[in-house]
Amino acid sequence: MTPCARIFVDDDEDLLTKGAIMSHTPTPPSQEETSKRARSEGDRQSNVLAFPFGKTSAARSIQAELARRASAPAKPAATEPRPDVGAIKPRYLNDAIKDTRSRLYPGTVVIASLTGVTVSQAADAVRQVRYGAGWLDFSYTPPIRHTQGNEIEQALRLLGYVGQWRWFSDQPTLAAYLKSRTGVERDHPSVVFLSTHAVAVSGCVFCDVLSRGVVIDIDDAKGRRKKVSRVLVLTKRIAPSKIASRTPAPKKGASSKLDRLFHEAIKAETNAARVKITPHEVFVIRPNETGWYWLGSRENVEDQILMPRSDNRIAGNTDAAAAYRAAMGH
Q1: Which residue, among 103, 115, 117, has the nearest Cα to 146 in the 3D structure?
Q2: Distance (Å, whole) CA 330 – CA 323
Q3: How far apart are CA 228 and CA 174, in angstroms?
Q4: What's the distance, CA 7 to chain centroid?
Q5: What's the CA gap between 44 and 136, in Å, rounded?
Q6: Are 176 and 155 within 8 A, CB to CB?
Q7: Taking a C-beta distance cutoff of 8 angstroms, is the pair 294, 141 a contact?
Q8: Residue 307 above 80 pLDDT?
Q9: Alpha-carbon distance 327 to 291, whole Å?
Q10: For residue 140, which of 157, 158, 127 has the smallest C-alpha distance?
């Protein structure tokens, strides 16, 4: 048996078992038949590769969709929107709004004039720089009187303003400095540190504690013969930071009922004889004592009652505390 016949016998082994094997040696295919067979086999393989599921119309639709997507212009990558913090406004200052009972002080007036916040908000920014956000746990509000240059710079940063320093070894007078300004110093808002206090200057306008926080023309400014030691020029805006403040506690729902339940919860938790709740703080008079004892900030005491923990000063395990939690939806 020729090698070619042996191959056919091996390939048709199943036919041998059925008695259907051919008795003659097959004639090798001609060159033309081989070529046709190769072309037919190639076309079949191309169809299998192009349409693997045997559904020609569906496959054509998928290929058309893929081709359309490939030729479509790429969409730009989505980016998270950045908050609009605005830009430095040249040749402009704000009147410092006095919303406190205390007298005006240079540092807070300058911060308020440069940023547009109130004097109390400027003082809160300095408190956060000086004491951190934990100052709300103090039994009093720390007063802000004299402020240092680095405290003013950091408070301005909290409020979203960044600047650059310039130091003067010869310490010119304020009048001489105003005449010699160049570049951004001529029109950008700046903190000018004089021999005794800080003032706000921007272009041809001026504001300080001596003008009672009101913006005036720079030619009308007092103390023009005082020495200038350094200047902080504001050059860029950034996103402001959250600043701790003792704002009035928000009313939630039926405020009178909640206030009563809150009062009863504190009294039950501390076994106090009397309870005094201000918009920001909580005080109690304990048994056998006559003076008021500061229990903590109102927000902190409320959190301890609403979310009892083992390390809290207030356990929050009385029926009155449970009633307050239920009324608050906890």
Answers
A1: 103
A2: 10
A3: 6
A4: 77
A5: 81
A6: no
A7: no
A8: yes
A9: 31
A10: 127
